[in-house]
Structures are given as structure tokens and as C-alpha cells.
Design goal:
Length: 87
């Protein structure tokens, strides 16, 4: 119950922008989250973002032999043949 209250307080502090009552680690954590969110938004607003994204995808396909990069690769492993006589 106490943890939920503490988490709720963090959420309220994050939403309000005031973090005077937080300890230094929590304050730094919230600042880094805000910094990351701002960086991410700036990258998406960049006119060259789509161009850079497609170039990176093409580079990855070239490096890793093509294929669909949007799905997880399928692996198939066969059972190794073991000699009964070798130990």
C-alpha cells in the first residue's frame, strides 16, 4: 500500500513538473526521462528522419542478408546425431 502511494507521488511529481520533495536519484531519473522524451520528439519532427530511417534499414538488410526486419527470425535446429559407441 505504501509503495502504491509512493509511485503515485512520483507520477504526480512528474506530471506537475515539481520535484522538490524527491531524493536526488529520483529527481535525476525524472530529468533523464524528460530529456529522452524531448530528444525522441525532436528526432521525429526532423524532415530527414524518414530518409535516415530508410537508409539505416537498407544498411541493416545489406549487412544481414536481407529479409524482413519487422518480424522475428525463425530458427530451426536439427537434433545432432550421436554415436552410441563414443564416450
Amino acid at each position: 500500500m505504501e509503495e502504491e502511494t509512493h509511485t503515485g507521488a512520483l507520477r504526480d511529481e512528474y506530471a506537475s513538473g515539481s520535484h522538490a520533495d524527491l531524493d536526488p536519484v529520483q529527481r535525476l531519473f525524472l530529468e533523464k526521462i524528460r530529456e529522452y522524451n524531448n530528444m525522441h520528439r525532436l528526432n521525429e519532427e526532423d524532415p530527414d528522419y524518414d530518409k535516415q530511417l530508410s537508409e539505416e534499414r537498407a544498411k541493416l538488410q545489406r549487412l544481414h542478408g536481407g529479409g524482413d526486419l519487422s518480424s522475428f527470425p525463425q530458427f530451426s535446429f536439427s537434433e545432432p546425431e550421436m554415436d552410441k559407441d563414443s564416450k
